[in-house]
Description:
By secondary structure, the protein is of the alpha+beta class. The protein has helices spanning 47-59, 65-68, 81-94, 117-128, 146-149, and strands at 8-22, 27-28, 31-32, 37-39, 98-107, 135-140, 153-164. The strands form 2 sheets. Strands 4-1-7-5-6 form a 5-stranded mixed sheet. The N and C termini lie close together (12 Å). It binds magnesium ion. Magnesium ion (MG) binds next to strand 1 and helix 1. Magnesium ion (MG) is lined by residues 16, 18, 41, 47, 50.
Amino acid sequence: MSSEMRPEFRVGTGFDFHSFEEGQTLVLGGVVIPHDRGLKGHSDADALLHAIMDALLGAAGLKDIGSYFPNTDPRYREISSLLLLEKVYRLVRGKGFSVGNVDLTVIAEEPRIYPHIEAMKANLARTLHLQPDQIGIKATTMEGKGPIGRREGLAVQAVALLIKEK
Ligand code: MG
């Protein structure tokens, strides 16, 4: 195989934190999770999808999600972040990339994430045209320390690999 036939691999990372707020619905990975509080934000505040979008955009050498979907724009008020992820997927495809795999860590003291992971994976698989085994979703806590440990919010860390066939 000549060198110009080798696929190009690009890696990107994303991170997002949102504060909990009373009276909000908690949505993570496009899944509504029963909880006494939700995340505060302009869109549906889906920190998992925001982190994966930034990872995909970063890997493609594009700008961050705030540049494409400004939180001052009324079009994005309370929008489902799955719709934004679809747009990001099209941007990435438009640059000639497909997604190799994504891996996510939810950092939260509460609620329990594990019962919802399969539903989150199904949403990511459908939107990013992936098989479930190309998606990792894990959860950990801060052992009671810091703002996450005090249950003031949660964070998500993401990594994405993009592949361009040449
Ligand atoms: Mg966000």
